[in-house]
UniProtKB/TrEMBL annotation, chains A, B, C, D, E, F:
SUPFAM superfamilies registered for this protein in UniProt: Molybdenum cofactor biosynthesis protein C, MoaC
Keyword S-adenosyl-L-methionine: no
Pathway linked to the protein: Cofactor biosynthesis; molybdopterin biosynthesis
InterPro entries listed in its UniProt record: MoaC, MoaC_bact/euk, MoaC_sf, Mopterin_CF_biosynth-C_dom
Superkingdom per UniProt: Bacteria
Transmembrane segments: none
UniProt-listed GO biological process terms: Mo-molybdopterin cofactor biosynthetic process
Listed name of the protein: Cyclic pyranopterin monophosphate synthase
Amino acid sequence: MADDASPGELTHFDGAGAAHMVDVAAKPETPRMARARARVRMAPATLTKIEAGALGKGDVLGVARLGGISGAKQTATQIPLCHPVRITAVTIEFEIDAELPGVVVEATVEAVDRTGPEMEAMIAASTAALTIYDMCKAIDRGIEVVDLHLVEKRGGKSGHWLRDSK
Amino acid sequence: MADDASPGELTHFDGAGAAHMVDVAAKPETPRMARARARVRMAPATLTKIEAGALGKGDVLGVARLGGISGAKQTATQIPLCHPVRITAVTIEFEIDAELPGVVVEATVEAVDRTGPEMEAMIAASTAALTIYDMCKAIDRGIEVVDLHLVEKRGGKSGHWLRDSK
Amino acid sequence: MADDASPGELTHFDGAGAAHMVDVAAKPETPRMARARARVRMAPATLTKIEAGALGKGDVLGVARLGGISGAKQTATQIPLCHPVRITAVTIEFEIDAELPGVVVEATVEAVDRTGPEMEAMIAASTAALTIYDMCKAIDRGIEVVDLHLVEKRGGKSGHWLRDSK
Amino acid sequence: MADDASPGELTHFDGAGAAHMVDVAAKPETPRMARARARVRMAPATLTKIEAGALGKGDVLGVARLGGISGAKQTATQIPLCHPVRITAVTIEFEIDAELPGVVVEATVEAVDRTGPEMEAMIAASTAALTIYDMCKAIDRGIEVVDLHLVEKRGGKSGHWLRDSK
Amino acid sequence: MADDASPGELTHFDGAGAAHMVDVAAKPETPRMARARARVRMAPATLTKIEAGALGKGDVLGVARLGGISGAKQTATQIPLCHPVRITAVTIEFEIDAELPGVVVEATVEAVDRTGPEMEAMIAASTAALTIYDMCKAIDRGIEVVDLHLVEKRGGKSGHWLRDSK
Amino acid sequence: MADDASPGELTHFDGAGAAHMVDVAAKPETPRMARARARVRMAPATLTKIEAGALGKGDVLGVARLGGISGAKQTATQIPLCHPVRITAVTIEFEIDAELPGVVVEATVEAVDRTGPEMEAMIAASTAALTIYDMCKAIDRGIEVVDLHLVEKRGGKSGHWLRDSK
């Protein structure tokens, strides 16, 4: 995943422009972390149903949380040039956003490896968001992910990175 | 995936609120289609590199296209309550959007089954978008998916559905 | 999965004793069902914690249910000679058994195919049971599955089969 | 897999009761081992056929052994909150038990990681047992797993654990 | 897999040269078969060990047979643009060829679908061959697959095809 | 994968002839490399089409390259007794061989682990070769892999190994 690359080059291609899996063998194995966020907009009535389920019956967010964790573990078979990364922790958090209206998903993945879990965090957030879509699409097919991005990363040569809030 | 459900209920839960995989055995096996779209915003310099690659060296979109197609085939192991669906075709199209600036991904999945490939199309679009992120994040970690939604579906009891354009 | 085999022969081997995947092409594609049960015995204090979680915090059975459903979808890659089967529904039910003490898991899988979902039901029940083990083993490593068996099957040439209750 | 957790808490849930993959980054990477056992009861005639096959034609136990080893490698995609574990060895042993009557499966998994391979051993034993079921169900649908439990574990902060024999 | 394509065009690309999964929805679902062969050359001493194992201890070919069958079931996740195909039977046969010297692998896959199992047969044969390599490479690293090709296919619009023997 | 085994024994079997996954826990984790080659023979007209595609439309080799990289990551679920290996780099190179006529595939896999990536390199080369077959079989069903072998390995107790060129 080449999170330590010098800026300016697309590291997934060699000099001839051929795609490859970037060599990370020389990097030290260190603790790394990445955090991604997805915002899911829906009809107010759909959000009301999700909030009701959180009380114990029809727990959409409980299913989506497990979807996100399973998704993180499948990242290397999902993203063509991504390295397998040794995940040490995955956390998925949800926040109800009445103004959106919808749900904000935040996925945090930790790893001890030679490259960081940015893609694992992005896949975890998107899979949790799409699991919400799957469970609610029968009543609200127009649900949309209105934002999906990396929020923060730690570890590796490039160190700490925090997205500018807007 | 219960695309024929009557509106108003969350079909992935039974009367007691327990999650299950919805019974689709009684539905007829028919041709179905779903189309999803993701818009990926990035720095102008990143988009310029992607456009250059399309000319033959460092083909980011060629890799992302295959990421999307592979993603579609892994949908049932990615989304917890999703049925395995018999995919008959997958197409991923890209459009350069200089104003975004970025890339618009459109994924079309066709299937012959008792439920439709909406989730396959959504996963295909999001995996293609995240593959673009993976390949460009070394030069532009702030790339974001600014929209991911279903555009159209055909087939099944609920018939044709087309997203309102805004 | 050869559920229609004539009794007396191990159908997964040819005349020379070599393992193969049994030919089912000539069988009609019909609705089929299988139901399996696992009983999980644990310390009374562990069962008390599981029952408390069912009320909304620390929902062990909610996670185990999704483990069982995902397990059913992975059966063909788990059991060497098993056919891929077109699953149309999966349900996992739990019953608290204070006398065991423990949890009774019942997994029902439906399919429309040329062979039945017996193995899918068995894997669903065992995966749900082992997910309970995974979540509780930090407090009760001695938890055991004291029984795992097929309860019922319907469909196919051999028709309805119901386990003798004892 | 949190094999070093202090007893009394369900470590797979956070303070709010939400499921997560437990953080193991701070644990040392050490050699660990786990051993699990499954007992499979069957009709005497079925056991006779299995014993005959061991002599070279229709080797049910040879297939079941490979089912168990493959199963161990798929544990992290099977059990929702389980960490991927670096397996260094898998052994599956069978013993014919004429009194059961049936087969006793013993699976030993070794790993070098921050958490132990208990779930890998449990999945290996259950998959081997269910592979026996798959191969013999055409002649004996009533075969049952009458016991599945952890026998022993070594390594990690909680050290050596041996099941009380009864 | 487009086995019915008119000759002369690379059907996995659209008019603009973009890769896609070919649309097979309009084709009838019919029984189809494909047979592939791999020849594995090795040192005479290695072949002697394999032949000895076939008698019951260290059964290399028994393991390779299961590798081939599992490989067939994983074809759609292995080959980027390949459709998932409904496999109804898989058979792997081995022949000792003292003159090669080595083992000839023949994999036959049957399916009922809109496209044929050619790739499944090719993957089954190559995986069985590479499993032989895996098991014997510690004593004979120079083992090579000297030929891997399709032998025969049946079904679909293009009908029966038999390789010219040379 | 036992690349350090003493010659003369089939290390994937124990003393009784039962298959197992070899214990590698005592080996040091070191950088290792393996390189494999596949030669794919085809009709001259097919090779011409592939060469044309390399110029930007219908890029068969670009798709095959990604097939090979994905294949490398799936090795442990493909080869029954193979250890999961921590891959740090994968490169797939193609050379047009007008005399063959056809394409020479060379796959190089690097890893930091207790055993080497020989099987990963062999699977990467064969999957890339079979992806070429998949994409061209509609116009040339007789394409064959005329050679697939290990070329070189480095690392581990057995050190450097280079195939004799002939």
